Amino acid sequence: MDADVFQKHFYTEYQEIFDLLTSLEKISEEPEEKAKISAEYEKLNSRIGILQKYFTENTSFIPIYQVRKAQEHVGQLSRLAQQKREEIFPKKKFGFKSKQKMTTLESAIQKAETQSTKEEKKTESLSFNDANSCMIKDLNNINYTKLENEINGKDIAIVDCKNSVIQLMGNPSAVHMSNVNSCTILCGPISGSAFLNTIINSDIVISSHQLRIHDSTDTRFYIHVGSRAIIENCKKLQFAPYAWSYPKLGSHFELSKLDLKSIGDFNWTSVDDFNWLNQQKQSPNWSFMNDEHRRKWNSDQNGQLE
Known about the structure:
The protein is 33% helix and 27% strand. The protein contains 6 helices and 16 strands. The chain has a 7-stranded parallel beta sheet with strand order 1-3-5-7-9-11-14, with no helix packed on it. Strands 2-4-6-8-10-12-15 form a 7-stranded parallel beta sheet. The protein is elongated, with a radius of gyration of 23 Å.
């Protein structure tokens, strides 16, 4: 996706939706008129949802300052939609029902406001109980290994773990981490994205097409990413090149469509901080790890660390 193409499409659609929402008014209480304006309103909210999806899918291809600006414009549309809903469809002040069924209209607004949050915090909404997923949870002081026959092509969640060493020796489709404290997590190449939330005082070795890190601190990331890594609400993060090897690593990289040969050459240095928009100065929230402090891990075919 070219950044100029994104800009043109996004802001043309934004302006059309904004103008139509602004001009939307309730003319009368006639059922026919109310049905007409409700349909127009619902259509606009659907367009907001589509624009939100378009923005989310292209964040890794556009500069950080454009990402933040576009994010603000999507939020502006959602707030305007909420305002118009309250003006045109006010809640009844006197009623005996404490809860009412959410309308399709309200659902569309809520979806537009929460689309990005749902995607980035997927661990909170997925059950990870089906054949295509795997939950690793509540580990404490444990060495834990999953081999390729257990994780290839699956969504993996690592949740509420501390003081443990976790190895994912395979090719997951996606990886989600949440509430990880004082762990070492070694992950084979991922075919999709990695979403990491609340990682504290840990070593994370990970390779993925997209990497997003939120609400994390005092952690060392050894990465190989197909696009720019994104951090938000983080402090004291350090980055270095991917640093784990095991016998089938090469074949897993082939499955992931990532380039094993380019490790250390690109993208581990490409980090965007959503809380630091000054392009002229380095963000104080992350840094590159000094060579003398970098580690390397090697495992045999059974996950025994050498």
